[in-house]
Amino acid sequence: MLQIPTAALLRHNGGWAVYTVEDDSARLRPVKLGQRAGLIVQITEGLSAGTRVITHPGDAVSDGTPVQTR
Q1: Is 25 helix (H, G, I), strand (E, B) or coil?
Q2: Distance between alpha carbon 21 and the CA centroid of its chain, in Å?
Q3: How far apart are CA 1 and CA 62, in angstroms?
Q4: CA proximity to 54, closest of 16, 26, 29
Q5: β-sheet with 25-37: strand ranges across
Q6: What is the pLDDT of residues 14-34, one digit of tens each?
Q7: What is the C-alpha separation between 44 and 53, in angstroms, rounded?
Q8: Among 8, 19, 28, 40, which is least packed by CB within 10 angstroms?
Q9: What is the C-alpha to C-alpha distance for residues 45 and 30, in angstroms, rounded to an integer?
Q10: Sequence-separated (6 or more) residues with CB below 8 Å from residue 54
Q11: What is the band of 3 on the pLDDT scale with cuts at 50, 70, 90?
Q12: For 45, how many CA atoms within 13 A lie in the half-sphere containing its CB?
């Protein structure tokens, strides 16, 4: 079961999405949610295990924004 922090989720085209980190850039990916438990949500489609997601992306992040991993 794949889980991520709810702080990584954002609304997108009537559904949900997250920003992932790919080749040092932010990439918007639509996802489908499963069960929620407090600050964690299950992802049923759209991500695979080991994919890095951006939590609290803010307004400065968009698809293609360069990012640095901390």
Answers
A1: strand
A2: 9
A3: 27
A4: 26
A5: 2-5, 40-45, 25-37, 15-22, 10-12
A6: 999 999 999 999 999 999 999
A7: 15
A8: 40
A9: 8
A10: 8, 18, 19, 20, 21, 26, 61, 67
A11: very high
A12: 4
pTM to 2 decimal places: 0.92
Q: Which two tokens stand for residue 24?
A: 């040092």
**DSSP SS3 for 11:** strand
Sole residue written with tokens 């794949």: 2
Q: Is 24 helix (H, G, I), strand (E, B) or coil?
A: coil
CA angle 24, 28, 31 (to 5 degrees): 125
Looking at residue 20, its pLDDT comes to 97
